[in-house]
Design goal:
Blueprint lengths: L4 E4 L7 E6 L5 E8 L9 E3 L1 H7 L9 E5 L14 E8 L2 H12 L5 E8 L2 E10 L1 H13 L5 E4 L1
Parallel strand pairs: 1-3
Antiparallel strand pairs: 1-4, 2-3, 2-5, 6-8, 6-9, 7-8
């Protein structure tokens, strides 16, 4: 429920997909870890965390685009993971840099990273943190209205 996961009828377990809400252009990367959905006309069931990031918790359903991320690997537990709080993923680079400039005033370590997929390029706005401060920083950013995801890479 609190992980960035989803259920899909046919994709192999462990597959990573980028799901984009076509109504608000928010995107999130999720890992397929379950089977479903079993409701007619639905393609994917998102965890609560993923639904919150995509802005579909209230309405419950949305039209989405699903892109399989080939070669995307989860961080290896034997390696020390970098911790990021992601506050947005944008298809328009200037939108990402606008958020970055706003966050730069109050936060250190704000970056824009590029993610290329088969459907296009996304610009992710992230704030670097450490394990100790991640929860507090995520809560602070969420309190300011940002759709936060804690990312360990």
């Amino acid at each position: 429920m609190n992980d960035m996961t989803a259920a899909h009828r046919t994709l192999p377990f462990g597959t990573y997909v980028m799901v984009t809400n076509l109504g608000n252009d928010r995107s999130a990367v999720v890992r397929i870890n379950d089977r479903g959905p079993f409701a007619r006309g639905r393609t994917i069931d998102l965890s609560y965390a993923a639904a919150r990031v995509l802005g579909v918790v209230g309405p419950g359903t949305a039209r989405v685009r699903i892109e399989t991320l080939r070669g995307f690997k989860a961080p290896d537990d034997s390696q020390r993971a970098d911790i990021w709080i992601q506050v947005g993923a944008f298809s328009v680079q200037e939108n990402a840099y606008s958020i970055k400039r706003r966050l730069d005033r109050a936060y250190k370590g704000v970056v824009v990273t590029r993610l290329k997929t088969g459907r296009g390029t996304y610009f992710r706005v992230r704030v670097r943190t450490d394990e100790r401060a991640a929860q507090g920083l995520a809560q602070r950013l969420a309190g300011e209205g940002y759709p936060v995801i804690i990312v360990r890479e």
